[in-house]
Amino acid sequence: MKAYIISIGDELLLGQTVNTNASYIGEKLSDLNIDVAKTSVIRDNASEIKDEFKIAWNISDVLLVTGGLGPTHDDITRNCVVEFFNTKLTFSEDVLDNIKALFKKRNREVTDVNEDQANVPKIAQVIRNDKGTAPGYWIEKDAKIFIVMPGVPYEMEGMMNSFVIPRLQEMTGDKQGAVKRLVLNTTGIPESYLFEKLGDLDEILGEAKLAFLPNPYGVKLRITVKGDDEGTVNNKLIEVEQKIRAKAGRFIYGKNDDSLESVVGKLLEERDLTISVAESCTGGSLANHLTNVSGSGKYFDRGVVCYSNAAKVEILKVNEDVLIEHGAVSREVAMQMAEGVRSTSGTDIGVSTTGIMGPTGATTDKPVGLVYIGFCDEKVCTARKVVFGGDRLLNKQRTVQAALDLVRRHVLGISVDD
Amino acid sequence: MKAYIISIGDELLLGQTVNTNASYIGEKLSDLNIDVAKTSVIRDNASEIKDEFKIAWNISDVLLVTGGLGPTHDDITRNCVVEFFNTKLTFSEDVLDNIKALFKKRNREVTDVNEDQANVPKIAQVIRNDKGTAPGYWIEKDAKIFIVMPGVPYEMEGMMNSFVIPRLQEMTGDKQGAVKRLVLNTTGIPESYLFEKLGDLDEILGEAKLAFLPNPYGVKLRITVKGDDEGTVNNKLIEVEQKIRAKAGRFIYGKNDDSLESVVGKLLEERDLTISVAESCTGGSLANHLTNVSGSGKYFDRGVVCYSNAAKVEILKVNEDVLIEHGAVSREVAMQMAEGVRSTSGTDIGVSTTGIMGPTGATTDKPVGLVYIGFCDEKVCTARKVVFGGDRLLNKQRTVQAALDLVRRHVLGISVDD
Question: Between β-strands B62-66 and B144-149, what pairing exists: parallel, antiparallel or unpaired?
Fold first, then answer.
């Protein structure tokens, strides 16, 4: 089964919106072993949209279209679908009820343009939208499937999960042969170092495939194994994973969708440890990552964002003389911040960040990108020096990642050196 | 001039990486009035890559390719370029020097696989990579331009800004006619309400075009004006902007790339106001947004992330009886948190957030999505109640956006009602 994903919208081509929909859909289809052959982005232009429908219809079995279903004048996908399938619009009472219920929940009146969204292509089965007003369409014709969903990501995601995926799963069943993918998430090692550390890939992989997916926070290793039956594929996957872990295990913090913060959270929860954070340069981002994990209230007590030196002294009890002698961006202050937040909050672990994120703030001996990350628990109080690059937001994110990895390594008793 | 953007990489089709490159490039080209006709994503498959090169080469003047230039075995773009142009590889001393310098800066040894990246297609002019090891290629042939860049976003962005954009600008000059786009960023009003509020679009727009770009935090309005000369186009754009502002001005917080946090930061700085934040449900994200703005140290003093009730009492001086009587998620506690952080830090403004982000934590009378946002300055101390949806991360981000907008409206003296 071959899939083609079409995203519609000038805003995607003009770069004002990032096309997260195609990758979201691609991931879900891959999980079903449906091969995504190609994705494209097309303008809000009726003839170009219909032309692309034709191209995709000819070379794929499943066609997924997002965008252009909204209530305003620039939403033309519905009419393109009507013309492509040579069908007409029909009024759906269910869709109108859904729209009315949605507005009622938000204490707002239904508008005329929203009411018009209840008119849907006659050939289509309606996909209910739990999170917005635009219904989706499921169309089957000539043994092919044509799916249309809104471009608003969480509305599309809702439809994928509640309707499209279960339906496709039902239809494909076990017909696709056995394919398994596993992603190992690493941090703290550059792509080429990881590549060399793994050594002879043929020995590790055999028939399996390995892809290196670098991003600013680390490199993801994607292993793909294909075979006739699930048992063989699973065994091969375990074998490859073990060989990779034997070579680069301490850089691997998790699998697939695991975020570093969820891994750290799990480690803390399992060990019944609590944590508090004192942030200067990361400005709240470290606390934000930790609290993105549902249930983080069990181990996360508090965070303090101390931009001013006064706040560092008042809330974190950093010694003023140390601040003056070494400066706010120093190993000593990082350690005092970590210990300060730990002792004032009474948590098991205190973590801190202090650094120069740029573009301003550098001095002759302290460049943009210089960061100290403090870690204190009942046994150690230490700080790690890291030097990142010149981009402020990237530096904040990399510092958060390094701080979380420092916690992971300390809790697991792994070396904190590179 | 017509452009076609090709992104290469299984990870994009499998959904493991979101294709931010295409939108970044699309935006830059649009700024140059170069029309992006289409973008596509292709697998790491040599024949499919070369086929797509052919299709794009036939229908476009500028072809931009990203991905597959890395140092590992799954990077095959370089060889596809060599075959497509029927050229060969040649060694570049400059590229090797650049790679060596980069590794030296990071205190690491150059690996063999990185050295091989200094072999480049003979037909290409090298685009220097300041942020990574893979060089880019600029190829001109038959009055067309073929550009190849790495898939790592910040490496590609570096090349776009230092080389590709200036070069394209030089080549296109004023030949493209006058086109101007303006995006007005709104928050706090749903798409259909905004649409109705604007009323008769023909009266507002005339020959101009308007697109509604909804996202979970607000709706962006993109105005496009085309014409023969820049003067006419500019005047028309100002006229449309004024008409839109007359109808929905208080929901518009900024233009184009303006983020709400940078707008709020500018307002605070201009008025010489300082701010501190007390976060419960947003977990550091509000402070993180404020400190994403370079120079935020001038007005942002501190943030406190108080997940535990103990922290709310200790650091923010929230009254324990009030906590018990009304619960942590209440108007009263939101106000006390805002006032507490304001008075302990001595800033002009204190802002707070407390709510139930989900998926857990709801009670019979307090659903997931319920949020109180506190605001106190020397004149008022108030809290606003908002009800969002069921998604934890979306709720955090929406709360941050609503809190920032509350500050914006208070500082500007605009009504805080919807």
Answer: parallel
Mean pLDDT estimate for chain B: 92
> Do B305 and A307 make contact, defined as CB atoms within 8 angstroms?
no
pLDDT band of A418, cuts 50, 70, 90: low
**Cβ-defined contact of A14 to B222 (cutoff 8 Å):** yes
Cβ of B70 and A37 within 8 Å?
no
Helices and strands (H and E) in chain A: how many: 17, 17
The CA-CA-CA angle for residues A82, B35, B171, to 5°, reads: 165
- B7, B24, B115, B213: best mutation site toward chain A, by most A Cβ within 10 Å? B213
Which of residues B178 and A265 earns the better pLDDT score? Answer: A265
Q: How many percent of chain B have pLDDT more than 70?
A: 98
Cβ pair A304:B307 closer than 8 A: no
Q: How confident is the model at residue A360 (pLDDT cuts 50, 70, 90)?
A: confident
Identity at A299, one-letter amino acid code: Y
Helix axes B77-84, B46-59, angle to 10 degrees: 50
Going by C-alpha positions, the residue among B353, B352, B371, B351 that lies closest to residue B361 is B371
What proportions of chain A, in percent to the nearest 5, are helix, strand and coil?
A: 45, 25, 30
The answer to whether A254 and A242 are in contact (CB under 8 A) is: no
The CA distance from A128 to A103, in Å, is 15
Contact A207, A235 (CB under 8 A): no
Please give the Cα distance from B39 to B98 (Å, whole number): 31
Q: Which residues of chain B make contact with A181, given a CB cutoff of 8 A?
A: 14
Q: Tell me which of B25-29, B100-104, B138-142 is least confident.
A: B100-104
- Considering only residues 13 to 72 of chain B, which have any Cβ-Cβ distance to chain A shorter than 8 Å? 13-20, 22-30, 36-44, 70-72
Are A214 and B22 inside 8 Å of each other by CB? Answer: no
Helix, strand, coil tally for chain B in percent (to 5) = 45, 25, 30
% of chain A exceeding 90 in pLDDT: 72
A387-401, B56-70, B93-107, B281-295: the lowest-pLDDT one: B93-107
Could you tell me the pLDDT band of residue B320, with boundaries at 50, 70 and 90?
A: very high
Report residue A141: phi and psi, to 5°: -155, 140
Token digits for A6?
């079409």
Token duo for residue B53: 């090169």
CB distance A127 to A164 below 8 Å: yes
Nearest CB partner across the interface for A287, out of B154, B212, B305: B305
**pLDDT for the residue numbered B73:** 78
- To the nearest whole Å, the CA of B409 is away from the closest chain A CA by 22
Selection from A208, A159, A153 nearest residue A179 by Cα: A208
Q: Is A291 on the interface with B (CB under 8 A)?
A: yes
Residue found by looking up tokens 């809702």 in the block: A158
Tell whether the model's pLDDT for residue B175 goes beyond 70. no
